[in-house]
Specification:
By secondary structure, the protein is an alpha/beta fold. Helix content is 39%, strand content 25%. The structure holds adenosine-5'-triphosphate and magnesium ion (MG).
Amino acid sequence: MRLKLENVVKTFGSVNVLDDISIDLVDKNVVTIIGPSGGGKSTLLYLLSGYKEITSGNITINEHELQNDEKFLIEYRKKIGIVFQAYNLFPHLTAIQNITLVLEKVHNYNKKDAKDRASELLVHFQLGQHRNKFPIELSGGQQQRLAIARAMSYEPELLFFDEPSAALDPELTVEVLGTIKKLKEEGTHLVIVTHEMGFARNVSDHILYLSGGKIVEHGSPTEIFDHPKTQCLKRFCQIH
Ligand SMILES: Nc1ncnc2c1ncn2[C@@H]1O[C@H](COP(=O)(O)OP(=O)(O)OP(=O)(O)O)[C@@H](O)[C@H]1O
Ligand SMILES: [Mg+2]
């Protein structure tokens, strides 16, 4: 994956939540974002996935030069999958309908193919017996797995995950992280916000350490975890 950020700023009110971020990465297929709460991780993921507009600066991902233009963003969002920190499932649809609706309406699957694909993923994520439940009837971990299943259902070129294992118990965490590793092996380009440092070390080609709206350090897992340069990252590594 190519990931180029040029002087990216995102402002809410008078606060620069992302404060003039620049980076240029080539051939890094799995990029993870780590850092303290409130540092801007989710905000950066929203910009990269085309769900929030950049205040100023430029973002290029692979061949996509992101534009603050609704028509562009609608097309761009068809090529990517995202699992938000708060899942964003459709509350009025059952588990299986949450997947089939997207496949049919956005990706032009016919009814049978959509149902087959959704069923396959539900079984893979141990949600087969919950297929007809509404999100409110699912546990946090089940909702999270459903959101992941939906995001990968149409095999997007780019997948964005915001803390994909946050609501999972250890066993399911292993399961979900295994799925993400498999996506990497299949060649999907991934950007992942995570607080699982073991996983970040294991799966990342490159890690961004984001704090106070800045990329304070970035580098390979070894550079970040074994040779942190700043006091701030050293302390972060000690407590995680
Ligand atoms: N829509 C918004 N309006 C105003 N401020 C916002 C908005 N979204 C985020 N912020 C602020 O931007 C900052 C960064 O938030 P963000 O959600 O990106 O942090 P984060 O690194 O993902 O944190 P966490 O680890 O807790 O999820 C926070 O101070 C937050 O309050
Ligand atoms: Mg967040």
